Amino acid sequence: MQKTLILLKPDCVQRSLVGEIMNRFERKGLKIVAMKMIHLDDEVLKDHYAHLADKPFFPGLANFMKASPVIALALEGHSAVEVVRTLVGATSGRKADVGSIRGDYSISVSANLIHASDTPENAEIELKRFFKEGEIFNYQRVDVDFIYADDEK
Ligand code: UDP
Ligand code: MG
């Protein structure tokens, strides 16, 4: 099974959408294997958004991401990276498909509620960025036999 890193961004926390969005991931069948609240700082944001450091919107993005604590999650499931990106939707909440999380709850390119790893390689790097060894749990969910077929587990 694959793991992916999610951040519920400050807009998600401030707009009281944490429970609603967590519910979508849980109902899909994704397993929560780690979760914590953290206040991001410039050091971690420079790493996390290194691919955007030269963009004119980077300072505003960094301020937004520091505006309140965020919730970091590790989710596990079959093809979790791709499945979560599909649930989350396109970067702009204005363009994201209706039915996706961003499509349903965001009307902004920046304040788009969630970060989700975009490739399995980046998921591994990002999980290590936010979770120490021992903070990601290994356990069996009781409903696993009804979420997956035998050859998918
Ligand atoms: N972002 C922004 N303006 C832009 C593009 C991106 O503020 O024009 C922010 C937005 O919050 C986005 C984050 O930068 O989620 C990371 O951008 P990326 O292209 O990696 O999009 P994502 O993977 O989050 O869909
Ligand atoms: Mg990205």
Strand and helix map with partners:
Blueprint: E1 2-8, H1 10-14, H2 18-28, E2 31-38, H3 42-48, H4 58-65, E3 70-77, H5 80-88, H6 101-105, E4 114-116, H7 120-130, H8 144-147
Antiparallel strand pairs: 1-3, 1-4, 2-3
Bound molecules: uridine-5'-diphosphate and magnesium ion (MG).
Uridine-5'-diphosphate (UDP) binds next to loops.
What does this structure look like?
39% of the residues lie in helices and 17% in strands. It has a single domain (2-152), classed as Nucleoside diphosphate kinase-like domain (Alpha-Beta Plaits, 2-Layer Sandwich), CATH 3.30.70.141. It contains eight helices and four strands. The mean pLDDT is 98. The chain is globular. The protein is an alpha+beta fold. It binds uridine-5'-diphosphate and magnesium ion.
Major beta sheet, specifics? 4 strands, antiparallel
Helix-strand makeup class: alpha+beta
Strand order of the largest sheet: 2-3-1-4
| CATH structural architecture | 2-Layer Sandwich
Percent strand equals: 15-25%
Number of domains: 1
CATH superfamily grouping: Nucleoside diphosphate kinase-like domain
Output mean pLDDT.
Answer: 98
Residue share in helix:
25-40%
Cα-atom radius of gyration? 15 Å
What's the order of the H and E elements? EHHEHHEHHEHH
Helical run tally: 8
| Ligands, ions, cofactors | uridine-5'-diphosphate, magnesium ion
- Detail the poorly predicted runs: none
What CATH calls the topology is Alpha-Beta Plaits
Number of strands: 4
End-to-end C-alpha gap:
7 Å
Q: Write down the CATH class.
A: Alpha Beta
Characterize the overall form.
globular
